[in-house]
Amino acid sequence: MSAYDDLMAHARETEALKQVLGRLGWDQETVMPRGAAAQRAEEMAAMEKVLHARRTDPRVGDWLNRAEPADEVQQAHVRELRREHERATRVPADLAAAIARTTSLAQGIWAETRAADDFAAFAPTLTEVLNLRRHEAAALAEGTDLYDALLDDYEPGETGASLSRIFDALRPRLVALRERILGSDRTPPKLSGRFDEATQMRLAADCARVFGYNFAHGRIDRAVHPFSSGQGLDSRITTRTDPENPFDCLYSTIHEVGHGSYEQNVDRAYLLTPLGTGASMGVHESQSRIYENQLARGRAFAGWLFAKLRETYGDIGVADADAFYAALNAVESGYIRTEADEVHYNLHILLRFDLERDLVRGALEVADLEEAWNSRFAADFGVAVDRPSNGVLQDVHWAVGLFGYFPTYTLGNVYAGCLFAAMQDGVPGWAAAMAEGDATPATGWLRERVQKHGSRYLPRDLVELASGAPISPEPLLSYLERKFGALYGL
């Protein structure tokens, strides 16, 4: 066997073990007994030590030096494995295990303190998680920016500065659009009634099928915070239900279907290889957001979903498909990121991006985080945070150490804007098909342009190749201004 063959054989086993660790995480958030948390933390720490040992194995470095990739795909494999090996060798094994153990325990503590609305009780745990990630960032950064070192885990090639340039272009027009909408004289209607939660789950499965989710290789479960897990032949999603708000369940599901379908649609030749997953969290988010927003919150699909809900529940408090479309896209200053409308959503992310960058860099400490959050939220949204579960405790990300993850949500929206502009030109019949409950023309275009490539291309390269244009926030902003201008008569 050549050095490249040895390298790939080792990588496939590592990827398989990585999926086992991911399954432990899925189980923890869905069906694990509450009393198993301490044992699960040790299990995940042990698995992380095994993975770290494999990634830092001296043979990997030797194989990388001697590998002679024969084509572009093999070059991409070597690129990804070299990046993984170099990052892993900078982080001590004990630190990697400690992060896995601590974040596993922190997830349960976060859920309990969130339910109790007690940030002070969670602060010591968050401080421990943050300190571990700061140590990891220092090992990875080697004297450069700590936040950039963590961001590279989720969005290779980006920096805090590069993201700030995009976000600085977004903020003024988002704020201006928000003010114009909230100052308009139009008040969108609201759904009314109670919506059986078991029925919501059946409707969620119907929506998942419309958007191409393959239940032979996936499943839907419930979780406090919806997420997706796995790849290839086993890609699972979760959702949540609210008897007064079916949109939360249905659109959380469609969002996660975007993630899950991406993983299911990666070229099977890449299965259990470094290319067998999404190119980055930003690209991943582009798929979930375009499924959820441009496609599922569009007028065409809204008409189909309105008929489905009326057939299932009877009177739902809105008279027709146009009123339903307006209700579905109502703009309100709410507390919760995952429930935010398209206009407010990125403002939620920009808040988190600035706060977490300060946390990692040491400009903000956990003891001052709640006050910093509440002050920034009041300034950005004009509303005072009433309790921690509506504020600093609402997201699980920091509890599980995902510092650097949040900005990929807004980057994903920017990518989605670029892709949607190209898709409209490339698939002229997509809207008519959506009106019939058929997302295949749109999702098929995304599968061929983006999803099947996995991690073969770097994130920006992939989106620019798919959309045929440089990355820019302009398509997203134009889409938002056009859509909500029409809805609110601006």
UniProtKB/TrEMBL annotation:
Which biological process terms from the Gene Ontology are attached to this UniProt entry? proteolysis
Q: How is the cofactor bound?
A: Binds 1 zinc ion per subunit.
Q: So what does this thing catalyse? A: Release of a C-terminal amino acid with broad specificity, except for -Pro
Q: Does the keyword Cell membrane apply?
A: no
> What top-level class of enzyme does the UniProt entry assign?
hydrolase
Amino-acid positions noted as binding Zn(2+) in the UniProt annotation, renumbered to this chain: H255, H259, E285
Q: Which InterPro entries match?
A: Peptidase_M32_Taq (IPR001333)
Instruction: Please list the cofactors this protein needs.
Output: Zn(2+)
Question: Active-site residues?
Answer: E256
UniProt family annotation: Belongs to the peptidase M32 family.
Function as written in the Swiss-Prot or TrEMBL entry: Broad specificity carboxypetidase that releases amino acids sequentially from the C-terminus, including neutral, aromatic, polar and basic residues.
Q: What is this protein called?
A: Metal-dependent carboxypeptidase
Q: Which organism is it from?
A: Tropicimonas isoalkanivorans
